[in-house]
Amino acid sequence: MIKEQPDHDNLPDKAPVLVFDSGIGGLTVLRELRVWLPDRRFVYVADDAGFPYGDWEEEALCDRIIKLFDRLLAEHKPAIVVIACNTASTLVLDDLRAAFPFMKFVGTVPAIKPAAERTRSGLVSVLATPGTVRRAYTHDLIQSFASKCHVKLVGANLLATLAEAHIRGERIDEAQVLEQITPCFVEEDGRRTDIVVLACTHYPFLANVFRKIAPWPVDWLDPAEAIARRTISLLQESEGQGENGKMRENSDHPHDVAEFTSGKPDFAIRRLLQGFGLQFDHIDG
Ligand code: DGL
């Protein structure tokens, strides 16, 4: 169903960038967006009531996200939305754009094209949730941009949850992490995997652990910077801003906020949000 455009009369100068993920993974993208858009206001939304997205049936997840955005767009009136989640982007981007044609959506999809351009061995692995690995979108990316490479898709069923635990300050079992990433490391005819695409926004939080326990050194490709650049270019297109898309000269702006659909992120998450300068936004219901 196509939705009506909300009343954006006093926009765009105060309109925030809305960053969305199933959990805290999108903070790895927010971190980069802030570097490039230091004067922007951000709203971070985590659908933690639905976490993890990796195991959801496609249709049910699609419906859930579209419904959620019906409310989020009306409430926050963002200038642009960044879907900082591969599992959601590879499923629902087209549907979101069709349902809300007045809004620009930047997606986060596996960085298969840059990996194919950079690999020297021709062996690339894509580390993602089981959902992202199953998506037709991901298989199309390989066919379109990496047909000359050997691309190994690795669906990790526990890593997003382990990343959440790690970032909460809990001890994680490195042997369990190693078990999840080991299928990424392929040796074939004297060649070895040299690039692993981090195709879940939770995984950059574990990058140091990955580097420490990896069977051999590889490039861990994090798409956050590319997403930030894409966001700026779309903002400039719609708002005609200068280089950095700087918008917020006044210091009387409201705080950046975070909304969690459960309504009750635990203490460790609230502390993390505070560290990111995000004020926890209580929602009713
Ligand atoms: N952060 C999400 C992504 O980029 C996945 C986490 C989940 O399984 O919900 O795919």
TrEMBL record:
Q: Which InterPro entries match?
A: Asp/Glu/hydantoin_racemase, Asp/Glu_race, Asp/Glu_racemase_AS_1, Asp/Glu_racemase_AS_2, Glu_race
Catalytic residues, per the record, are C85 (proton donor/acceptor), C200 (proton donor/acceptor)
Which GO biological process entries does UniProt record here? Answer: cell wall organization; peptidoglycan biosynthetic process; regulation of cell shape
* Pathway where this protein functions: Cell wall biogenesis; peptidoglycan biosynthesis
Give UniProt keywords alphabetically. Answer: Cell shape, Cell wall biogenesis/degradation, Isomerase, Peptidoglycan synthesis
- Binding of substrate: at which residues? D21, S22, Y53, G54, N86, T87, T201, H202
This protein's record includes keyword Ubl conjugation: no
Q: Name one GO molecular function term.
A: glutamate racemase activity
Q: Which reaction does it catalyse?
A: L-glutamate = D-glutamate
Q: What is its EC number?
A: 5.1.1.3
Q: Which NCBIfam families match?
A: glut_race (TIGR00067)
Q: Which family does it belong to?
A: Belongs to the aspartate/glutamate racemases family.
Say what the protein does: Provides the (R)-glutamate required for cell wall biosynthesis.
Q: What is this protein called?
A: Glutamate racemase
Question: Which lineage ranks, top first, belong to the organism behind this chain?
Answer: Bacteria, Pseudomonadati, Pseudomonadota, Alphaproteobacteria, Hyphomicrobiales
